[in-house]
Design brief:
By secondary structure, this protein is mostly helical. The chain is built from 6 helices and no strands. The two termini are about 40 Å apart.
Length: about 180
C-alpha cells in the first residue's frame, strides 16, 4: 500500500474520531440542558433559549458529526441481502461501486449544504425570540460531517477492503457466524 494512502487513512481516522468526540459532547450537553430545563420548569424558571440551542445546534452536531465514524465502523443500518453474492465480485467491485454512488450523492449534498452555509454566514442570520442565537453557526456542522464522510468514501473507492481501527468484525454480531447462537 502506498505511503500516501496510509497517511490519508490516518488523517481521516483522526478527523472521524474528533468529530465523533464532538458529537458525544453535543449529546451529553443536550441531555444536561434538557434536564436543567425540565427541572427549571418544575420551579417556574425554565432555561431561556434551551429549545433553540438544542434544536439548531446540538441536534445538528450529533447527527452529522457522528455520521462519518458510524459509517467507518459499520454502525449504520445495512441491508445484507445480496452481500454474499456481491462479495464474490473481484477487486471489491461491489464495495467500490457503493462507495462511488454514495460519494456522488454525498458530494451533491455537500455542494448544496456548503453553499447554504456560506450564504447564511454571509447574512449573519439569527433566531427570533428572547435569546437571539446566531443561527448561521448551526449551518457549519452538516457540511463538516459530510466532508469527513466523503473523505472516507473516497478512501473506500481506492481501498475497499482496508481494515479500520475501531471497527467491529462484520460477522461478530451475527448469531450464524459461529454456527448456532448460544453454543
Amino acid at each position: 500500500m502506498p505511503r500516501e494512502v496510509r497517511h490519508a487513512e490516518r488523517f481521516v481516522d483522526v478527523l472521524e474520531r474528533a468529530s465523533d468526540i464532538l458529537a458525544a459532547v453535543g449529546l451529553c450537553t443536550m441531555m444536561l440542558i434538557i434536564s436543567a430545563d425540565a427541572l427549571g420548569r418544575l420551579f417556574g424558571a425554565p432555561l431561556q433559549g434551551a429549545y433553540e440551542f438544542t434544536a439548531y445546534y446540538l441536534m445538528v452536531i450529533v447527527a452529522f458529526l457522528a455520521l462519518p465514524r458510524s459509517y467507518a465502523t459499520g454502525g449504520q443500518v445495512r441491508l445484507e441481502l445480496l452481500e454474499p453474492w456481491l462479495a464474490r465480485l473481484p477487486g471489491g467491485l461491489a464495495r467500490r461501486g457503493v462507495a462511488l454512488l454514495s460519494l456522488a450523492a454525498f458530494g451533491l449534498l455537500l455542494w448544496f449544504s456548503g453553499d447554504e452555509a456560506l450564504r447564511r454566514i454571509a447574512d449573519r442570520e439569527t433566531t427570533f425570540g428572547v435569546v437571539q442565537w446566531p443561527l448561521y453557526l448551526s449551518y457549519v456542522w452538516m457540511p463538516a460531517g459530510i466532508a469527513i464522510l466523503i473523505l472516507r468514501l473516497a478512501l473506500d473507492v481506492v481501498r475497499p477492503d482496508a481494515p479500520r481501527r475501531g471497527a467491529a468484525r462484520p460477522d461478530a454480531a451475527r448469531p450464524d457466524a459461529a454456527g448456532v447462537a448460544g453454543r
